[in-house]
């Protein structure tokens, strides 16, 4: 009786691109070892699939790898029986990612086993999963220890005033791993500081520099690509004016240390510029109402490029007057809180995504950004959003946020000016306004006070009506001072399905479910499942 054929997919990975251009590189070595192992199991019916699943230059810390994505897709399609790797950490170094893979491997219709060239573990058994989890725990621990060592080395080196690499600041070149002054560029830097001191406005400074044709630093990459030479963005100018490297110092997180390179700006001019920047910032603080201010003023557009401007309306509620904010133009009227929450949530997710963090300094800076973005009462949040976001476009099926790479990476220029965040969403009309209903992105629960009040009132009136046989609907309407029609509509709210009522109380009801929609419905189905289908719950 012939053995069942076991289709084996070989996955290889290397964290860096170094050496991949060689005729025989580490990916080839990994594949040869795996092929030899599969050959040793040919008596069990094992065969090597011809498809190459090779990821060169990709970290094992996340799953955003083209070959890995193809491997997972082929597993789900039932094309693979066993995954073979040289070492377990070639597949992943993160336990959370491994847990996701195990779910795919454990497909009851087509289970997939997992093999290293030294040991075989069957991921469909609890013992195999335990063993792999232990090994991956050590792999993740090793990765975290290496990260800590690198961070400690950078911190110790910067305390000694050493430049630790990265993009060169305008005014400096690199020689023997040290910063040396580029006199032509240094004169530009001095000009920027002196001009700002005269104009006392970064906006006017930018206009002045653009008029005179002053541009960012020209750079040549290792591959020979020329970048830079662009107009200096306002954010880049703020970076220059606040960069302590120009007074012979090195910044690490919140600390500044004496450096080994020569300064370009003298302390007198530096301090005067810092004083003006601080004064301008304090003046702006007084103008910003963090709680009621419109976070996205000047940034939000519809799909035709028409700008949406802030607006508000004051409405009476049971607890008094309430101010509702919107972004409006001739075709759209969006609740401000909804679109602002979408922007903040997705900016934070982008900043927390490991694939967007290139250096330790990025990680520290992004963590500060996230902290500021989550602080509703911080005036800094308003300025940070305007600094990071170039534009927001609201379309019928998605919201697109253009994030400035120049501001994000603290660079004076960038090969790719913007990163696009595309959030699946739908515009749905709710009365006079349109609400944004998110697709894949989960929103935080949000209680609708009016809906909760109506629900509570409906139950109160229903209890009143059923507690005695002497009270008619007409008498109840007179007692409450409302019309008989209104009483009828209010009472039917108490007949909503338990699932809908729970959603209203917990704030997880669909954004399209409003008090106005509920009270203006011509008919409400008596069947609970039909109700839930009607409201999308």
From TrEMBL:
SMART domains: Resolvase. PANTHER family: DNA RECOMBINASE-RELATED, DNA-INVERTASE FROM LAMBDOID PROPHAGE. The lineage of its organism: Bacteria, Pseudomonadati, Pseudomonadota, Alphaproteobacteria, Rhodospirillales. SUPFAM superfamilies: KorB DNA-binding domain-like, Resolvase-like. This is Putative resolvase. Residues 169-283 form the Recombinase domain. It comes from the Bacteria. Residues 7-161 form the Resolvase/invertase-type recombinase catalytic domain. GO terms for molecular function: DNA binding; DNA strand exchange activity.
């Amino acid at each position: 009786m012939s053995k069942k054929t076991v289709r084996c997919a070989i996955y290889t990975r290397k964290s860096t691109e170094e050496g991949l251009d060689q005729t025989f590189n580490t990916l080839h070595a990994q594949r040869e070892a795996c092929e030899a192992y599969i050959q040793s199991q040919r008596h069990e019916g094992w065969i090597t699939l011809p498809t190459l699943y090779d990821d060169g230059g990709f970290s094992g810390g996340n799953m955003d790898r083209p070959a890995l994505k193809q491997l997972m897709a082929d597993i789900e399609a039932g094309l693979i029986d066993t995954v073979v790797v040289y070492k377990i950490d070639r597949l992943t170094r993160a336990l959370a990612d491994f847990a996701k893979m195990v779910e795919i491997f454990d497909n009851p219709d087509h289970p997939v086993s997992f093999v290293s060239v030294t040991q075989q573990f069957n991921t469909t058994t609890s013992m195999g999963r335990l063993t792999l989890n232990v090994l991956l725990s050590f792999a993740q621990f090793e990765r975290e220890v290496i990260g800590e060592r690198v961070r400690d080395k950078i911190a110790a080196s910067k305390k000694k005033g050493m430049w630790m690499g990265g993009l060169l600041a305008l005014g400096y070149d690199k020689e023997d791993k040290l910063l040396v002054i580029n006199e032509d560029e240094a004169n530009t830097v001095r000009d920027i500081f002196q001009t700002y001191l005269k104009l006392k406005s970064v906006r006017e400074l930018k206009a002045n520099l653009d008029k005179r044709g002053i541009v960012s630093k020209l750079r040549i990459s290792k591959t020979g690509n020329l970048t830079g030479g662009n107009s200096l963005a306002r954010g880049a100018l703020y970076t220059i004016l606040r960069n302590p490297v120009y007074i012979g110092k090195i910044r690490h997180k919140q600390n500044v240390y004496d450096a080994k390179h020569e300064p370009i700006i003298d302390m007198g001019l530096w301090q005067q510029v810092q004083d003006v920047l601080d004064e301008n910032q304090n003046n702006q603080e007084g103008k910003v109402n963090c709680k009621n201010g419109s976070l996205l003023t000047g940034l939000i557009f519809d799909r035709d490029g028409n700008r949406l401007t802030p607006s508000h309306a004051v409405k009476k509620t049971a607890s008094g007057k309430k101010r509702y904010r919107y972004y409006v133009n001739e075709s759209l009227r969006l609740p401000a809180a909804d679109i602002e929450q979408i922007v903040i949530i997705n900016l934070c997710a982008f900043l927390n995504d490991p694939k967007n963090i290139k250096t330790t300094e990025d990680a520290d800076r992004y963590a500060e950004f996230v902290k500021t973005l989550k602080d509703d009462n911080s005036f800094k949040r308003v300025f940070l959003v305007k600094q990071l976001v170039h534009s927001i476009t609201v379309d019928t099926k998605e919201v697109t946020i253009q994030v400035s790479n120049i501001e994000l990476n603290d660079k004076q220029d960038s090969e790719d000016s913007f990163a696009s965040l595309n959030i699946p969403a739908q515009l749905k009309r709710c009365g006079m306004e349109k609400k944004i209903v998110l697709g894949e992105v989960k929103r935080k629960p949000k209680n609708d006070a009016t809906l909760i009040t109506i629900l509570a009132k409906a139950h109160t009136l229903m209890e009143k009506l059923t507690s005695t046989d002497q009270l008619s609907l007409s008498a109840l309407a007179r007692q409450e001072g409302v019309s008989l029609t209104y009483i009828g509509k209010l009472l039917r709210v108490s007949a909503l399905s338990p699932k809908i009522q729970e959603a209203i109380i917990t704030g997880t009801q669909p954004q399209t479910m409003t008090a106005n929609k509920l009270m203006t419905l011509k008919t409400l189905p008596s069947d609970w499942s039909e109700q839930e289908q009607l409201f999308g719950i």
